[in-house]
Amino acid sequence: MAEKLGDLLLTPAEMAAVDAATAESGIASFGLMWSAGAAVAGAALRLYPGALRFAVLCGPGNNGGDGYVAARRLAESGAEVAVFHLGDPARLHGDAARARAECALASQPLAVYIPGPGDVVVDAIFGAGLGRDVPQQVRSVIEQVTGAAVPVISVDLPSGLDGRSGEVLGAAFKAAHTVTFMTRKPGHLLMPGRELCGSVEVADIGIPARIIKAHSSGMISENTPVKWAHLLSSAKLETHKYKRGHLAVFSGGAGKTGAARMSAMAGLKAGAGLVTIAAPRDAMAENGAHLTAVMLHVVDDGMALRDWLADERLQTFVLGPGFGIGAKTRDFTAALSGRHLVLDADGITSFKDDPRELFNLFAEGEPHLVLTPHEGEFARLFPDIAADRRLSKVDKAQAAAQRANAAIVYKGADTVIASPDGRALINTNAPVWLATAGSGDVLSGMIGALLAQGLPAFEAAALGVYLHGEAGQRAGKGLSAEDLVAHVQPF
């Protein structure tokens, strides 16, 4: 399954390098601006054929130039168009100045725009490279447009959004539709940017793919099957349960066993050949009363665990859901440092006082630890990274993965999966109703099952997150963790 150009995510800095290299190659940059503006005009007419007026808001750079081209094309189509500019248009230069000169439509200062009934706003003020809070006059227009519920089509990215992080810089338009060019940026996928972009259209404006690929690090992408499907061997007739891996999930004591069962059942549904719950003796009857296909094994303490680990077939474990916080959890983690481990929930929080203790256990060799923190758990393990406001969620996940030598699943509506080698994937298929008690326990079991089947830590984490989202879509609104497990399917 080959990666398509549209699967790439370019940061604003990488896109700027692409633009510069395109110009150096001899391709006329104004032709690209013309194509961009035409794509925006085409989207506006297609989506809002009944608009009474298109209000085109043009900024002081090339994003504004795209807007002037769009305004001209809209006017040529017979639409009513009004153009508004930010700053002194006489100070435009290069392609943007030419686009305004050829537009031949009079423009008014942005501050005088008042949204009217039947308006559709074409937001061409700032693009993806904005790195500062929007000025007050732009904030004021954004507030008026938002209050009037006027539909917005944004050029490249809604003005006020950071194209690298998806964060709002003071204020931002909420677009119904966004037209970007050649590739998306991380800000189109990361929250809250994803919600503010509306539907996203990627327009091919004629930049050669070779130039884009030459200036893309290739390290940040959307989490799609192209990233891991090649690692999944198709099922064969001779495949048996041991070839599909043995996953062990640790249970808490009596009265605290439900989370482990969620993980274990999810692991079985996700394709593990065998699943065992390792539980204290006082929790055996409680677990046994609810399980049939999942096996049980008594593990009361660290000594019993180390005895069990003499069986070299035991290579993959899930620790943390419902297990309890404290020294026992840390001792179990240390015993498992040479095996594949998904550490979640209580497992993560047990190391909050000394995260380095955890990192040292898994510092050597290929990554075989998967950490699945939500926002609060992430801050407990990586307090300095979490507090750095200069970093995007992707940056934070990448830094954490490198420090821990682990695959990081930084959970949320925009879950980011990161590898110590710098790769990062942004997941987009999870429905909002996945935010329910026990959902994370299900995810841990799914990732554990994929590790047990031989996938590397990063790919197992990425596939697990993707399949988790698919299960949530199938289960539908109002799901419980039990519903989610019932809808888990292998890829």
TrEMBL record:
InterPro entries: Carbohydrate_kinase_pred_CS, CARKD, Nnr, Ribokinase-like, YjeF_N_dom, YjeF_N_dom_sf. Its EC number is 4.2.1.136, 5.1.99.6. The gene is nnrD. (6S)-NADPHX binds at residues 62-66, 127-133, 156, 259, 322, 374, 441. NCBIfam families: yjeF_cterm (TIGR00196), yjeF_nterm (TIGR00197). AMP binds at K411, G412, A413, D414, T415, G440. In the N-terminal section; belongs to the NnrE/AIBP family. Keywords: ATP-binding, Isomerase, Kinase, Lyase, Metal-binding, Multifunctional enzyme, NAD, NADP, Nucleotide-binding, Potassium, Transferase. This is Bifunctional NAD(P)H-hydrate repair enzyme. It comes from Rhizobium gallicum bv. gallicum R602sp. Residues 224-491 form the YjeF C-terminal domain. GO terms for molecular function: ADP-dependent NAD(P)H-hydrate dehydratase activity; ATP binding; kinase activity; metal ion binding; NAD(P)HX epimerase activity. It catalyses: (6R)-NADHX = (6S)-NADHX; (6S)-NADPHX + ADP = AMP + phosphate + NADPH + H(+); (6R)-NADPHX = (6S)-NADPHX; (6S)-NADHX + ADP = AMP + phosphate + NADH + H(+). HAMAP family: NADHX_dehydratase, NADHX_epimerase. K(+) binds at N63, D123, S159. The lineage of its organism: Bacteria, Pseudomonadati, Pseudomonadota, Alphaproteobacteria, Hyphomicrobiales.
